[in-house]
Amino acid sequence: MAIQVVTIDFWNTLFTTANGERREQHRLAVIRSHAERLGARVSDDILRAAQAATWQEFKRIWKREHRTPTTEELVRFFFRTLKLEPDATAVEEVAHELAYGILEHPPALLPGVAPVLEHLVRQGFQLAVISDTAFSPGTVLRKVMEQAGIAEFFAAYSFSDQTGVSKPHPEAYLYALRQLNASPQAAVHIGDIERTDVAGAKALGMYAVLFRGDHNAVLEEEYVERSQADHVVFHWDEVPPVVERIHKQGSQR
Q: Is the full-model pTM beyond 0.90?
């Protein structure tokens, strides 16, 4: 079946983790400020340790439960690690500040993304984002895409905070494909993680492209020497010919 849809991961595929340290510093400043409102003074070392523990809890849930914690869940865990108990209003305020902080310190588009997306749309492919989220939910990541000037190219979105599941769960992909009235066999997914992006797409019957173009990826420790992806690319300039090859291959089936 010919390819109709190209689905794409957000982090380390469309965007790098640029400004990550500034985002982390912003989160620590927000947590410190609210901790002080609760009458606690915490050192930098304690804050950093709590931050590391929160990321470990995120990864535990992400990998074992195939979902991503909400911003509110992460905030509560962060404060529990600091042995503080904010009320619901404080949790909501902190979650909002952490979720939207990314707009002040946004990630950067990977080289070549914008012209390739425009090219794919001109060629008649529908584009969708399928992405797991962390501190910033999908509604905010869409604003990041708007700021970067690429939101106009996408016709559908599937973020884990919307669906309640994370990749490789089938619903992460099906949620986007249903919006475009497309079958898995008519879609190719591009992402940077073998365990989630590639494995989930292939299990569903989609084509998969493993993206290895961001050397600053921080969430995936397991490097896979041999991928089950249909293709592996190292720069966005390689994407159009690969998609065209898959499209022709599917048309001949």
A: yes
